[in-house]
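[Meeting: bench + compute handoff]

Bench side (C.D.) handed over the final construct sequence. Compute side (W.E.) agreed to return the predicted structure before the next meeting so the bench team could plan truncations. Sequence as handed over:
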Amino acid sequence: MAMRPYDIPFMKAALALAERGLGRVAPNPAVGCVIVREEAEGPRVVGRGYTRPGGRPHAETEALAQAGDLARGATAYVSLEPCSHHGKTGPCAEALIEAGIARVVGAIADPNPEVAGRGFARLEAAGVEVTENVCAADAQYLNQGFFLTMSERRPLVTLKIAASLDGRTATHEGQSKWITGEASRARGHLLRATHDAILVGSATAIVDDPELTCRLPGLGDRSPVRVVADGRLRLPLTSKLVREADRVPLWILTMAEGDAVRRKAFEDCGVELIDVAAGEGGVMDMRRAMELLAERGMTRVLVEGGARLAASLMRDALVDRIEWFQAAKLIGGDGYPAVAGLGIRHVEGAPHFVLRHAGRSGGDLYASYVRSV
């Protein structure tokens, strides 16, 4: 059905609600719902909802509960097609029908084979007016991780880089604190809060001994699963990551043939070891590693270093987004690069990204890029 003048603003409100769930709802998508009644004075919002932590309750359920009897005859704006199958809860399409919703405006169809258009079809069969593809591109971007788990069996991969003007992340002696300023570091923690997992290479974990938690005020419970790519289990058992594994989950991507005694020591500390087969050249197959993370429910992975891990993911075309924080400093060619060698012979063969947003982050520059398709 045709769009109405206020469909886009209300759908953008639903998308803003959905965004609140990023990093907390995996393996489910983050969905927002706004219920609107048309009254003499103009449209009035009577219910709002978004997918809650763990994926339940759904956005539609939340919004309908808030709207109550005012939902009858109203319009529901939903950032993803309402589900039509029975899972841990009943189908949202049926809940909308039973509540007497007269019109549903959906941003985009659900790629889940159990839904895939059936939700919209069920609504239309019940006499509900359906308008699809309102702000579809924004909805696709928001839930790209969920969409990728359906289409490629892997999560969204975001590469976060904090570097100097010349693309260096540390001095030649390995010192990196702090290249970027406080505002950029805070923004980096916010990125952690919106991802399901944070991944670093073993060298970064050993040299920096990071916590990899979200330490923004009020967001302490939003820390993602910490993941280390450590094929030879070099991470010290005394590291902060291992010591805090009982508080914030720590997974290690490693090779199955590692030392049995060391493997048991990690497991005794509460660390989950994920065995990844070797790929070309005997190194860890990162595409398979991403698939294994998706199998464990991860839809959004934030990569924070190091250079070899970034290069490995880049070579396998696994980097979907880059969040680049650039400090107004020069470190020089003897510093550590943000990305290790890619073996590119011609410029046209370089991975290409498109600028989505750029601005200031304190005294630094901040830019978001998406992979060119």
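W.E. noted at the follow-up: The first helix runs from residue 7 to 19. C.D. will use this when planning the next construct.
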